[in-house]
């Protein structure tokens, strides 16, 4: 897991994975 916004272009896939994990853990639509 990387800090948000360190390099916008490289975050696209990590962001999706992180959001899916967040939704799975918290049951919330982020």
Model description:
The protein has 30 residues and is mainly alpha-helical. The chain has one domain (1-30). The chain contains one helix and no strands. The chain has one helix at 8-26. The longest helix is centred in the middle third of the chain and has 19 residues, at 8-26. The model has no long low-confidence stretch (mean pLDDT 72).
Fill in the keyword field for this structure.
single chain; mainly alpha; 0% strand
Average pLDDT level: 72
Strand segment count: 0
Structural class of the helix and strand makeup?
mainly alpha
- Radius of gyration over all CA atoms, rounded: 10 Å
The overall number of domains is: 1
Overall spatial form = elongated
The H-and-E topology, N to C, reads as: H
Summarize the structure.
The chain has 30 residues and is mainly α. The protein is 63% helix and 0% strand.
Secondary structure topology:
Elements: H1 8-26
């Amino acid at each position: 897991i990387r800090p948000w916004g360190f390099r916008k272009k490289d975050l696209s896939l990590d962001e999706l994975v992180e959001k899916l994990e967040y939704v799975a853990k918290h049951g919330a639509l982020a």
